[in-house]
Amino acid sequence: MSTSFEEIVAEIRELYLSDSIPWIIGYSGGKDSTASLQLVWSAVASLPQEKRVKPIHVISTDTLVENPVIAAWVHLSLQRINISAQQQGLNITAHKLTPSLENRFWVNLIGKGYPAPRPKFRWCTDRLKISASTTFIQELSENNGEAILVLGQRRGESQARDKVMDQYKSSTRARLSKNKDPRLSRVWVYPPIESWTSDDVWEYLITQPNPWGIDNQELFAIYRGATPDAECPIVVDTSTPSCGDSRFGCYVCTMVTQDKSMQAMIQNDEQKQWMQPILDFRNKHLAIEDRSLRDFRRMNGRLTVFHGELVHGPYTQDHRKLLLTQLLETQKLVQKADEAQGSNLIELISIEELEEIRRLWVEEKGEIEDFVPSIYAGVFGIPYPGKDLEQSPLDAHDLKLLEDVASEVDPDASSELYKLTRSLLATQFQTIESHKRSKHLDRLEEVLHHYAFRNEGEALQFALASQKGEAGGANDADTNGLVA
């Protein structure tokens, strides 16, 4: 082992006693963060009661789209941490953080229509993971002057991880480095296990009992179950292959081609086969080429040309409806299987998120058809439990009539004509309801600009002509802001 755990525990004790700065430990429930927390716990527990005064906050961010098995493990662990810390007289408090409603995955993907994340448009990480933890750390550091952030990062995991850790090297305090995020300028970073290998981590976790009452062998079993061949040998020397390099994360993640860990869990344990519909949903509806499923306009109606084609923006209304229907169907299947095992804990999308999606569709996108309640009722066979919206002056019969008229007036572009008319009416209704007319004409003009073209071909011709007229085409370089 690069540095013995006894040496690290001694170092942690020294750092803990050196000042009054509160500590924050990032905890994901995985092996590295578990080892880091266990080392800190052991160090502080070895101190006399009167010296355990400095607060330690354990934070874990639940993106609400985590692998359900891992999410349940983390939830149980956080409960045990709080109970055991109180019983053992330790000033340790665990916090489960979640993204704000407007930052949640389904609100952005299905509500706003953001396309599934891709390397050039990775909108999810900051919204789901970073934002909530950064807010917590920022508030704590500002209220206390400074804070120390303990991270379970190790060198040698990947070149990208090593580059991140290099940013924390030029320390002005022994073993502590300033955080490079300007929002966290008062936060010091401390990685206690940076010199350890994966084998070192497992050796420590398996040989040292967990102090807050979970069984590290169960964690080992989770990693083993997430390995395709289900083999995780106990490390006996450097030539023995290690278990524990599995990567857990969001089941909706499209940064990887396959969710190998979830697939392995399903393959290796029949009690986890209830997750198959979740994996199927991800593979069929998210990890796909989706350009044809997105509007040829960006979110704000702008046209962007790249390599002679329009950069497509948010998902179309039809595809968002399909995604919501299939997600609810998946939730129904998973909950049925969950109930068969005597539990009823799995919720892929909450009513709160459905209500926000509904608001975005009706109020911000002008989709006054209000499809969320009917989609929900169609899937579950019960009335939608959300709040009543202000009744639209147009009912389903009126909207069908509007569709028919649009088809008669312009059969080749009836869908665009229908959406234009519907959106203009929606804007008018919203103005009447709010009694605010100050920007009414501006909103109507935005709708007219958004639906100014009968089809993508006309829009592309206009964009190319405009680009030539601007002699240089600044838009041509705009490839990353796919929905902005």
Automatic annotation (TrEMBL):
Keywords: Transferase. InterPro entries: PAPS_reduct_dom, Rossmann-like_a/b/a_fold, Sulfate_adenylyltrnsfr_sub2, SulphurTrfase_DndC. The keyword Signal does not apply. It holds the Pfam family PAPS_reduct. One of its GO terms (molecular function) is transferase activity. Residues 25-208 form the Phosphoadenosine phosphosulphate reductase domain. This is Sulfurtransferase DndC. It comes from Rhodoferax koreensis. The lineage of its organism: Bacteria, Pseudomonadati, Pseudomonadota, Betaproteobacteria, Burkholderiales.
